[in-house]
Amino acid sequence: MNRIDKDMQVSTETQKDYLLRVAGKYIWWKSPEDAIKYPQTVLARVMNIGIWDDLCELAQIFSGDELRSVLKSAETGQFNDRSWHYWHYLLMDCTLDNVPEPPVRRSN
User: Fold this and answer.
1) Which of 95, 47, 89, 45 is nearest to 67 (CA)?
2) How many other CB atoms are there within 10 angstroms of residue 14's CB atom?
3) Any idea which of 28-32, 86-90, 98-102, 103-107 has the lowest mean pLDDT?
4) At 19, which helix (H) or strand (E)?
5) Which of 16, 30, 54, 100 is the most exposed, having the fewest neighbouring CB atoms within 10 Å of its CB?
């Protein structure tokens, strides 16, 4: 968990309802109530492996700025290459040759 994830705020009941519903689907090893304590993690999971209907709803409920924040605060392994590129094309105005590398684990 990173600092941004912990600080991300859910601003509407619609967002909270959505997160509770999808958390049970995409973060099945936690209760939805526990999972939504970290909304960035829930959103990243949906953005990475979500079904089309959940992604369409996500795009209606959360702003581009909120979704860009999810990308900017992504942790190692939260996105596969395909999803990482897709969301950067869609939200970050990237072209094929300028998508940043996904986060990687650094050894000390």
Assistant:
1) 47
2) 13
3) 103-107
4) helix 13-26
5) 100
- pLDDT score at 3: 39
Distances (CA, A) of 8 to 1, 67, 80: 12, 11, 22
Per-residue b or e along 23-54, where b marks 16 or more CB atoms closer than 10 Å to that residue's CB: beebbeeeebeebbebbbbbbbbbbbebeeeb
DSSP code, position 94: -
What would the pLDDT profile of 25-41 be if each residue is shown by its tens digit? 999 999 999 999 999 99
pLDDT band at 53 (very low <50, low <70, confident <90, very high): very high
**What distance in Å separates the CA atoms of residue 27 and residue 42, rounded to the nearest whole number?**
7
Smallest CA-to-CA distance from 102 within 47, 81, 66 is with: 81
Residue position matching structure tokens 């869609």: 90
DSSP H or E run through 69: helix 64-72
Q: Which amino acid is at 72?
A: K
